[in-house]
Structures are given as C-alpha cells and as structure tokens.
Amino acid sequence: MKLYSHGRDSDLREHLAEVMLAAETPEERVLCACHDLGKATAAWQAYILGNNRESPHRHAAAGGLFAALVLLELNGPEKEKWALIALHAGAAHHTDLQELNTDSLNGLSLVAVDRQVGEFILDPEYGIASLLPEVPAEVLLRAWEKFRRMAPPASRERFQFKTGLKRAVSPEERLKIYLHCRSLLGRLCLLDHASAARQSGKPVEVREWRARFPAEEFKLRPAREFKGAETPVNRLRSCLRREFLQTVEKEGVFYFIDAPTGLGKTEAMLCGAELLRQREGLSRIVFAVPQLSIADQVFEEYFPDCRAQIWNSRRRDKTEIGNAQTPPEDRRGNGSDAEALAIEEHPFQMPYNVTTFNQVLLAMCHPNRNRCIRGLGLRDAVVILDEFHKLPQVILPFFFRIAREYARLARCRFILGSATPLEPFRFWDLEDSCRIPPEATAPIYRAAEIDNRRLYRSMGFLTLQELGTEIETFQQESDRNLLVVVNLIGEGSWPLRQRFQQAYNPWRQLEELKTPGTGRIMVWLDGLVPPLLRRDLITACRDAMRHRPVTLVSTQMIEVGVDLDFDAAFIDYQGLAATMQRGGRIGRNGRETPCEVGVFALVCSNGDTSFEQLIEVRKNYSIRLRQKPFDAIFKQELKFLDLEIDFFKEWGERILHDSELAASLSEFQREVFAGLTAAGLLEQLFRIDVVGMQSLGATFEKAQFIAELFDSERASEIIVVESQEVYDELSELNRRIKSQTSTGEDRKRFLTLQTDRTVAPADRIRSELGLVPCGWIDYPEPIEVFRVDSVVW
C-alpha cells in the first residue's frame, strides 16, 4: 500500500524512515517510526492529495499514544518512563510539550475506526512493521487493539493507563522524563522538518541530526590583562582569578564566584570556563547576562578578536501553552520557510556565544518544540550566568534541579557569578556545588581599597522634576562625569530626555558623541537605542569621557559587564543588589577620595516609587506568580522585597559602604529564605491527573513558567530603521519567506536586520517618538516597522 505524507510526490514510509535518523535508542526508534501514524487514515490521505480543503483530524497524538502502548507491550525495563516520553514527544511534534487535552485527543476515535491504519501498522513490506523488524507482529497487534479501546474518552483502558503511569513515575523522575522528552522532540522535529521539506519537493538533504550542530575548532580569545600599574586593586583582581581557577579544578556541575564589582569577575569566569572546556573536552562557551541590552557591551568588551557571536533577539515564546487552541495543521507540516526561520539559527553556534538568561532557559527547559530544537545546540558547553541572582527567586529551586539533569544529558557545566555575597539556601539543592571558600572572599569584600571606592547616601524620594533639578545643579557645579540610572523608560529616561530637550534619533546621537568637543554632553543609553548601535555608543562614551564631561542617562542595561568608570552617580533604588551593581560603574579603579553615589526613589505619576511599580506590574501581569507551586515561593519573595523597601525608607542620613549594603542584603535573605524547603514542589509542577478523562500525560506545559523571564515594563516591540532602503530590504526578504522562495542566507540576513533594530518602547510613549510608519513584517511574528526621519523635541 502506498500512502502519502506531504503531497502527491511524497511517501509516508520514506518520511518515517528518514525521521528515524533522530533516534538514539531502540525505544526512540519506536516513536520515530510511529510519529505520523495518524496520517494513515483514508480521510487524511484525501486531505494530503488536495481532495479535502481542511484537515479532517489531528494526527500527532495518535502516533504518540500508539508508540507508548507498543513500549508498554514490549515490557522492557523502565517501560512506564519510555511510554510517557513517547506519548508526549509524539503528540508534541506539531504543538508543544503539554498535558494532552481534548483538542489533542479528539482525533483518536477517527484513527481507531479506520481499517487502513491497522493495515499500515501490520504491513511487513511497507508499513510500520517493516520499519521495526525487531518488534514482534503480535506486539504491534496488541498495541493497536488497546489503542482502539482507549480512543473513546470514557474508556476504562484510558483510566488504567493514566493511573499506571502516575504510580510508576515519581515527581523526581518526571523532571528527568521531561528533559528527555525535550531532547527527543528536538531531534524528531529537526528531522521531521528536513524530511517534510524534501518530501514537498525542496532540494534539502536529510542528514543525521548532529550534522546540524557541528563543533568548530576552538581557539582561545586573547586574555584581558588588568590595566595600569601593580595597584592594590589589581592585586586583589589577580587573587580572585587565581582562587577561582583553583575552584574549577574540582569535579562538579555548578561553580560559583561572588565578588564586588570591578574586580575582574567576568574575566575570571571566562578563564575558568576555558579551563573547564579543555579539561572536559567540551565544544563551546556560552556567556549569558540578565538583559539583551547588556549583551552588546559584554560582546564588545570581551570578544572582539575571536570566533564569537551575539544573540540579542528579544523574542520570547509567550504562548501560554495549554490555554489556547492549537492552530490547524498544514499540509506542508514542519517544512515551511517560516519554520526554517525559527530553527535554522540558534544562539550557541560559535566557540564563544553571548546571549541572555532568557535564551539559555528557553533552550534548556521551554516546552515549545522549536525551543527543543535550539536546546540541541546547547550541548557540550560551559554556560556562564553572570549576575545569576537576577533570576527570579521563584524559579531557582526548579532551575538548579533542571540544570543538574540537563548537564548530565547534554554534557554541560555551569558557572554562576554574583556581585553580592552568595547565600546557597537549602531549598536550592546545591550541596554538590563548588565555590571559592568564603574565608577567601570575605577579606576581598572588606579590603579598604575596595570598600572605600564609593560612599552611598540617600537622596530620599524624588519626582522627575526634582531629579532633573539635581542633574542640572551637578552639571552647573562640576565637570565630573556623571551616571544617572533610572528603573523605567516610560517614567524615567524618556521624560528626562524631553526635559533636557534631547531628540530621539539614536543614529544622530552617536554621531554627536563622536564629534570632538569640550563642553558637557548628555547621552541616553536605554531600551530605545537599537542593539545595532549600543556597542558603538559605549565605546564612544568611554572615549568622550577622557576629553569632556559626560552625563550618561541609562537603565538597568548599565549594570553588568560594562567597563565604564564614572566619578559620581544618581541611582534609582531597585533593591540592595541592584544598588551595588549600579554603583560598580563608579570609581571602579579607585580615586584619591571615595566617589559619591546618591540613591533616590523616583516617584511615578501614580504616587508609587518606580521600584514599587515594577513589583506591582510583576504581581499583576506575570501569570507564573498565580500558578502552583510558584505562588507559595513568591509570597516569601514579597516579604524580602518589603524588607528592601523598608531599608530605603529608614536609610536617613547614614553614609554607607558596599560592605554594609552587602551585609544587610545577606541578613534579609537569610531571614526570609533560609528556612524554606522544596518538599512537594515537583509534584505540583508536573502533575498527572487521574480523575478527568479528557486528558493524558503530565502537566509539562508548566515548564514554560521556569523558562520565561518577565519583562516588568509593559511594552510592544517595533523595528526602527535608519532609512527607507533598509525597510525595503526587510520587506523583500519577508516576501520571499512568505512565498516559500527564501534561501538560508536570505533568512539569516532577515534575522540580522530585524534583531539589530528591534526596540520596545513603553506603549505610552511610542506616539511621542516622532517615528514614520513604514509597514509590517510577518516573521517570526507580525511586527511594525518605523523610520527615524526627523528631529523631535
């Protein structure tokens, strides 16, 4: 019998055989051979050939369930584990990893009553039996008979299937199963995409999946040396690096380093990662930072002369998996140009890769199928998370458990850095981690040459008008370089720009900064500056500071990995850790007298401080915080945030050092988090429901709440271009992708143009930017394009 997979010139058996290249175990072979079983119905074959306009039923869940039943009938070791893997990976190859709901399962009955499906399974010449000669025919027959009995929603067989899985698979094992599902789903979808494109007539070669992620020859970047003479600060920097390199000599998965800002922590982590890579025979180093706006500066500072890439795409999968109906299936399956756009490029292709926490978490644990493909690239890697304390406290107990298992599956190691003292709480489960001994780091925090670099004072609560007056007074009385950091754009950097009559034209701002002069210049570096310009802007700012006074107004993008050294600062309070991190841009190399850092709480238009507004937006718009088990941890985090807010209110006239801020931070953390346990968290995360008959499997969709980091300033993305010619090029590339005529180079160029110019202005200020609408592009999702065309005051 000849059946079709992707049109009149395709072959279903050939397609299944090509996808079987994704399998690494006998159990995975079973799923790959069965994944498109639902396409064998007479109704689906008519649809494939164009006789029916709409898909008659969903097909993916049928392949996953049948493969699970075959594995149970084979009665091998860990059969329930493999059944759960097959069920989810098979059902998700056109959707995402999630509990199978009514929408997914409705097609089972139509598959079960179709005689042609049973014939295709048992056909020893053409069917699934021919692809799996190692599986006895009677096993396939028993699995098919059980499938037919399970298809009705209220069947007793379905109840027994669910209860059997729940009894046999513990919550801890479900986490391991979930990560194995992601690996298998990524490999399956990668081969499914290539085969679907070939079966649809495209000149695509179907190759073993590892060929998609080749490892380049690793060449070390030039090491950075500390500038200047052998100073006390440089001696401490050398000590820190030496201590950390001794730490990474130990066997482990997690390596921690904490040190005050400006002590070369970034370079120490990179040197440690290079040592680990060589010792473990790994292929790449991934350096991740909290926000994409920081990634550009890190890339420019540390990777200018080596094989490196920066992945500064802001896009995230805010799919709310499990809450929306799955879109209709397409005849092309996974073989379209739009699908290629989503999976061809990934953040981990080079020996050195700079990206964001969000991209690492999405690749490690997001249930979206294309994220599972990208996760295949995050193998054989040393992953550095700089300032990991910026990960939300609510995900840390899950992140460390997932990262440990991910490291085992994908041969990874993790280096985690922090500018504040490390407090490894019990509920994080980090007993096997490696870190510089506290007795080695404590003297560094207390050293006079470190602790006397800055003095922090409270400026109290300021309105925008009052903050503007403080900036004006400073600029009138001093020729020192000033850093101003605010928490928000819409109620921070943008109204300040308007107050000082600075036009929004980031290309012109860069030109003015590079123009020689002696008078003070004000510079804006926030999320309104396209990624394309940020590296040049930092470099030009550093050069200008040597010759003229500079006032830089920025947001949190200045916090990590930016080697700028200001003389004074005004900092918007966002907690103790952020205050010390931002303070690290002032007096980094020391001065004859301590530099002054004024800390203020910016009062927004609604009367709340910007810090309180960030917390409130998070509480109201982060879905994760209303989901079990995250809600219970967030209640504890709110207690910690209240302590930080009270600290600022009670600051008064005290002049504080970094060590005093760090001591208060540690005290608050211990008070709130030291007594927490992880008991019951995994059971609530990946639950198997045995009561409802309209679902199968585990709630794997909840992993999206670990992978997605919340953006506290509500904003919509737009693309800002500097000329009509750039928009015309974007538009033409978009047309080619839409018409299925694009090449790999077209798609690569399209992504580069788009991500280099994507910004996210707060909704309230977009109309004030003076941008000229150009049009829309469609991929990866619809986004509007604007041109910077005029000077707006």
Which strand-content bin applies to the residues?
5-15%
Total of DSSP H or I helical runs spanning 4+ residues = 33
Strands of the widest sheet, in order across it, are 3-4-2-5-6-1-7
Helicity, in percent? 40-55%
Secondary structure class reads alpha/beta
Label the overall shape.
globular
Biggest sheet character: 7 strands, parallel
Mean pLDDT across every amino acid position: 88
What's the β-strand tally?
A: 17
Rg result: 28 Å
How far from one another are the termini? 72 Å
- The parts where pLDDT drops under 50 for at least 5 residues are 314-320
Produce a short descriptive summary.
With 793 residues, the chain is of the alpha/beta class. It is 46% helix and 11% strand.
Which key terms come to mind for this protein?
793 residues, alpha/beta, six-stranded parallel β-sheet, 33 helices, 46% helix
Can you describe what's shown?
This protein has 793 residues and is an alpha/beta fold. It has 33 helices and 17 strands. The chain has a 7-stranded parallel β-sheet with strand order 3-4-2-5-6-1-7, with helices on both faces. Strands 8-13-12-9-11-10 form a 6-stranded parallel β-sheet, sandwiched between helices. Helix 2 (26-34) runs antiparallel to helix 4 and helix 12 (171-199) packs across helix 18 (369-375). The model is unreliable at 314-320 (pLDDT under 50).
